[in-house]
Amino acid sequence: AAMSRKGRKLLVDSLTRSAKHFTKSEVECLIKLFDTLVAKASSQFAGAGFDRTVFRDTLYNAFGMTDDVVLDRVFSTFDRDNTGCITVEEWVEGLAVLLRGTLEEKMKYCFAIYDLNGDGYISKEEMFQMLKHSLLIQPADEEPDEGVKDLVEIALKKMDYDHDGKLSFTDFEKAVRDENLLLEAFGPCLPDIK
Fold it and tell me: What pLDDT does residue 137 have?
C-alpha cells in the first residue's frame, strides 16, 4: 500500500532512531528495497511484509547465505512477533544488527541463531545439528558423525566455563570476548565482510 509522504517521513525518522547503525538515507534505501520485496511476495500479508521464501532468497542473493537451518533461524530472529511475516521495522532493525551490529548485539544474535529450541542454552544436540552441515566428509571416514561429535566436545571444552555440559549466554559471551573468532563457532550466520 502506498504511504503518504508524511507517513513515510515519520517511518524513516522512527527507524533511523531504532536502528541506530544506519543513516537516514540508508534507512530510506532499505525501506525502498523492502517495498520491492513486498511487491515480489505473494499478497497474503496485504502489503504488510514478506514471507520466509522471499527473505531466504534475499539473504541468499545479497549475502550468499545458503545453509537452510541457518536461514530459518535468521528468519526467526528477524520475525520477532512470530507472525511468519517480516515487517518493515523487523527488516531494518534486523539488518542493523546483521550488517552493523556491535559485538554485543552480534553475540546475542548468533546465540539466538544457535539456540534452536529457544531455551536459553546451546545444548550438545544443538551444536551437533549446527555443525553436522559444516564438515566436509571424506569418503575414507569410517563414521561421519564421529568427527562432528569430536568438534562438539572440543567446543564444550573451550567454551563451557561452568562445566554444565551446555552453553549459557554467559559462557558464549565469555568465550567470544576471549576469542572473537568463536562468534560463529557453530556455523556462518553473519554476512562476510564484503
Answer: 61
